[in-house]
Amino acid sequence: MYRLSAYFLARTTSDLPLDLILPVLFLMVVYFMAGLRLSAGPFFLSMLTVFLCIVAAQDLGLAIVAMLMDLKRATTLASVTVMTFMLADGYFVKCSYPGSGVCLSTITYKPLLKVQYQDIMPLVNRVKTDSGLWEVGALVAMIFGYRFLAYLSLRRMQLHCGA
């Protein structure tokens, strides 16, 4: 039988091409229909941002399932987690104190905004259009953090069942 680390690495590398196909097709249609900037740089940066957001969300789901190992409880916790993110982001309730904390929309929405308006406007909706490296770094940290949490959860389960 394969080691857990070998399986986890193989699963991660084999899932990435499949995770990239549908977002590329979606973005190729929506990007040009929305009339966004027609140059290669902003298009590929938008694609990278969407890809990182999708992988981070999938890894959150993977971590939840790996921790609970029960589909019904994992679905319930995932629903509560997503609703909490939406409430904390101001999706349902608008925050009266902008910029007071790090929320998911800050990490997912701002890079897309910065890609489109970086050279055109210095501020868009009180968002400074800088390089966006902080948000991309946060997404990458979320991806590795959720993957590592899922790995540790599966490792704990493997050690618990083996003992």
Protein described:
- The two termini are 17 Å apart.
- This protein has a two-stranded antiparallel ribbon with strand order 1-2.
- The model has no long low-confidence stretch (mean pLDDT 81).
- Strand 1 and strand 2 form a beta hairpin.
- It is mainly α and 163 residues long.
- The longest helix has 30 residues.
- The chain is built from 5 helices and 2 strands; from the N terminus they run ααααββα.
The gist of it:
The protein is mainly α and 163 residues long. The protein has helices at 4-33, 40-68, 71-89, 104-117, 133-162; strands at 123-124, 127-128. The protein is built from five helices and two strands; from the N terminus they run ααααββα.
